[in-house]
Amino acid sequence: MGPTRNLDNHRPFPVIPPVIRTIKTFLSTTHGKHLAVIFVCALMCRLLLFFMMVADVDTEIINNASPDVTAYVESADAIASELDFSTDPVYIFGPGYPSFLALMKILFGTCSHLIVLVQILLSCVGSVLLAKLAFKLTGDLRISFIAGMLNALSVTSISLANTLLSETVFFVLVLAGFLWFIKGLERDRVCYSLLAGLCLAVAALTRSMGQLLFVILILMSILLYPVPGMRWTRLLIRRLKHLLPAIIIMVAIMGSWVIRTSHVYGVSLLSGAAPEAVAKIGLLARSDLENVEFWDLVAEVRAEVKAAELENGKGELVWIKYADETWELARDHPFTIAKVYLRKVVGSVNTDWPLIYYGDLTGWMDLAAQVNSTLRGMGLNIRASVLAIIGLVMLFRRKRYSIVIVLVGLYAYFALAAGFSVGQGMRYFYPGQIAWTIMAAFPLLWLFDWVKRLIHRHRDFRLDATDGSL
User: Fold this and answer.
1) What long-range pairs does 367-371 form, CB within 8 A, spacing at least 24?
2) Which residue has the higher pLDDT, 104 or 274?
3) E strands within 72-216?
4) Average pLDDT in the 191-212 region?
């Protein structure tokens, strides 16, 4: 009889594949469990709205949920079929999101429901990435969990995930860029900084409000992971090897698109939405100064744009002209411009109106309008801002000045960008959740601990009373 074969040393395949083993190990940690819960909660909330609409909403309605959605879908069709990047929506919004939709159409065909499902998964990933960023900034697992859950349960985030608009993709790209950059600082690896620059450049091509996000990278370079005894100026110089590659990648990619836009349209812009946004601030100021209805002024300008298109095909120059007039108004009437602009900032930051709807879902529209009106009437529309301010005060009192500056920088960046939106609800300020959810998590955690202590004291009191009666 031959020697006995040791089966344990001759297994053809490992019992647990390395990838599954890695996932299992990660999910066994507290942080891994938190992230899994966040992802599942985000997925359940987004699928709930998806299944609410899927029975009544067909592909045609999804593709035409709003004028912006229609524009995105039409430009994606042109890219998918003919690699045509010269459509008006690509000029106005940038090539990022139309290219994403075009790729989805190539992979999944014309079924918009499948594309929405992919976007839902991306949105869930965004909630997880937000939690990871919160942990990187604060080092607190519970703060990380609360911040991620605030995004997972956000009505705005849920609505945007189910609609063919660019905010979800932009949100994920920005978070990925920040996390790659922080990882580069942690491990002192330039390759991560290059990935960060790539993510943020694509984010800027998706929504042009991202073109100055290198300012946040500068703040992170100075304030995160300080070296004891080293001044911030010297630390910044030392970290230029991370900062410069990220900025160079951003400038190279965005600059290439600006050169292309200049060649095709004769204007050096990242997207045509920028002059229109600035022009509308000027029209709001004129509405105040001349006591004229704002939307009447917008209608006049749009008629002028249409006439210019028919005459010479250069309708975009009309918006640029009115944008230039806005700067002139700012010189002659600075307080009026400041007033209307700050009014838009405050309005965009403190609203519950998601602006997302599908034609036949009138019940959803009516409910959203009613909730928004009720919260505003009770003054509760500012609750997120109040919680964020309290969180900043708590961080300041704990002398966590670096985190305060980074979070305030993020919040201010997206709040100021949202000031250029008109009638967009929470859409424009949605990326601001990256900052305010982390800030708001601090008072919410304190409130949770306070209630927990109160319950424990009440239980201990009852136990003491019971023991005394015996």
Assistant:
1) 368/155
2) 104
3) none
4) 95
